[in-house]
Amino acid sequence: MAARRIASLVPSLTHTVCALGARDRLVARTIYCVEPRSELGGVPACGGTKNPDLPAIFSLEPDLALACTEENKPEHLAALRDAGVMVHEVMPRSLDDVARLLADYGELLGVDARPLLDDLAAARRELTAPPRRRAAALIWKEPWMAAGGENYLDGMMAELNLENVFRDRAGYPETDLGELADLAPEVVLLPDEPWCFRDADARLLAEAGILGQALLSDGKDLCWYGAWAPGGLRRLAALLAD
Predict the structure, then answer these.
(1) pLDDT value of residue 1
(2) How many angstroms separate the CA atoms of 218 and 115, rounded?
(3) pLDDT in tens, 17-72
(4) Residue 172 neighbours by CB under 8 Å, 6+ apart
(5) Are 65 and 74 in contact (CB under 8 A)?
(6) Is the pLDDT of residue 128 over 90?
(7) Does residue 211 register a pLDDT over 90?
(8) Domains plus CATH for the chain?
(9) Is a pLDDT exceeding 90 seen at residue 130?
(10) 150: left (phi over 0), alpha (psi -120 to 50) or beta
(11) Is the Cα torsion angle 194, 138, 167, 215 positive or negative in sign?
(12) Angle between helices 114-126 and 95-109 (to 10 degrees)
C-alpha cells in the first residue's frame, strides 16, 4: 500500500514529493524544506536535517520518513524505525541515481513518475557539454571546504564535463587558497548555499592567484537532487556556456 502520511527530512525530497503530486500526504518537513514555497505553508516544520524534532514528528503519526544517508544522522533514523515508521533512505551520487530515485518514489507513493523521468532524460540529451575543464565547487569558507568525490555535487560536475580537482578526496575536504591556487582550476563554482558566496569572494580568489573563472550559482542547482535535477542541470549548463 502506498504511503499516506509522509515526513520528509530532506529539502530536495520534500520538493520531489510535491512535484509528484503527493503534497497532500506531507505531514512534516524540516525548517529548510522551503520549495515549492506556495505549497508548504500548511506543513509543520519539525526541526532541521541534523536536529529533527522527533517528538513533534511522532505526534503527526507518519507512516513513511524520507531521508538521505549523507544529510540525516543514523541515530535519528534508527529512532524513527524503532517507533514503527518506515524509513526510505537514499544517497544519490549521479543523475543515474536520481533517475532510480524518481522511479522508486513513483512506486513508493503509488504515483506516475514518468513525466519527471522524461524531463530528466530530456535535460541530459539537451546538454551540449563545453570542452572538459578542471573545476572546483566550494561549499564553505570558514574554513574553506570543497566538494570532493563520491557525492552528488561531484556527479553533477561530471555530467557538465567538469573535472573535479578534489575528486580523489571523498566527501567535503578542507582546503585553503594556497592549495586551490596550486590545483589551478579553470572554473570555480561558488554556490549560495550552504555558504552564501558573493562577488567579494570571487575577488578574494582572484587576489589569491586563483585565475579560474569564478561563477556564482544557485546552490540548489548543484546540491538538490530528485525533481530539482532537470532544471538545475539546464541552468548550470547555461551558466557555464555564458
Answers:
(1) 65
(2) 24
(3) 999 999 999 999 999 999 999 999 999 999 999 999 999 999 999 999 999 999 99
(4) 139, 140, 145, 146, 147, 148, 151
(5) no
(6) no
(7) no
(8) 6-91 (3.40.50.1980), 126-241 (3.40.50.1980)
(9) no
(10) left
(11) positive
(12) 170
Does 148 have pLDDT greater than 90? Answer: yes
Query: In Å, how far are 1, 111, 116, 119, 226 from 107, measured between CA atoms?
Result: 10, 7, 13, 18, 14
Over residues 90-122, the pLDDT tens digits come to 999 999 999 999 999 999 999 999 999 999 999
The angle subtended at Cα 233 by Cα 144 and Cα 182, nearest 5°, is 30
Class of residue 173 by CB neighbours under 10 A (exposed 0-12, middle 13-18, buried 19+): middle
Would you state the pLDDT for residue 212? Answer: 86
Q: Is the pLDDT of residue 177 over 90?
A: yes
Q: What gap in Å lies between CA 122 and CA 124, rounded to an integer?
A: 5
